Amino acid sequence: MSIFDAIGIAGTGVTVNRKWMDAVSDNLANINTATRTSDPAYEAKYVVAAEAADGKGTQVAGVVTGSAEGRRVYEPTNPLADAQGYVKYPDIDMSSQMTSLMMAQRAYQANLQTITTAKEAYTSALQLGKG
């Protein structure tokens, strides 16, 4: 383990949490995207994190998508409505997405604080030899 591993490991956390926030933002942006019942609904994105291959930090192992089935809503005035008056919306829960967004934001901030603290510790260590 080198002296700068703390910064490198926290940096991997920043990257994963940024991608997690991006996925949640996409989901929230498309939560009210209506489609025809014959078309697939927007598929929510979920980031899967895993330990980094070198064991130092974390990485994005992949992105899993939700169901394209969506939920049918009766909106006969919607121009996309079928003959029965239904349209399809993504099956995304606003409260769970907001919870995920807050968790990703807190983890992102914690990793940034780790980088800042490590940088200050290294800077202080460099000042020890100076009189």
In one word, what is the shape?
Answer: elongated
Task: Quote the average pLDDT.
Answer: 94
The helix content is 40-55%
Domain count, please report it.
1
Give start-end ranges of low-pLDDT stretches: none
Widest beta sheet: strand line-up: 1-2
Number of helices: 2
User: What portion of residues belong to β-strands?
Assistant: 15-25%
The tally of beta strands, per DSSP, is 4
C-alpha termini separation:
29 Å
Give a verbal description of the structure.
With 131 residues, this protein is α+β, with helices and mostly antiparallel strands. The chain has helices spanning 5-29, 94-127, and strands spanning 45-51, 58-65, 71-74, 86-89. It is 45% helix and 18% strand. A two-stranded antiparallel sheet has the order 1-2. The protein has a two-stranded antiparallel ribbon with strand order 3-4. Belongs to the flagella basal body rod proteins family. InterPro entries: Flagellar_basal_body_rod_CS (IPR019776), Flg_bb/hook_C_dom (IPR010930), FlgC (IPR006299). Residues 83-128 form the Flagellar basal-body/hook protein C-terminal domain.
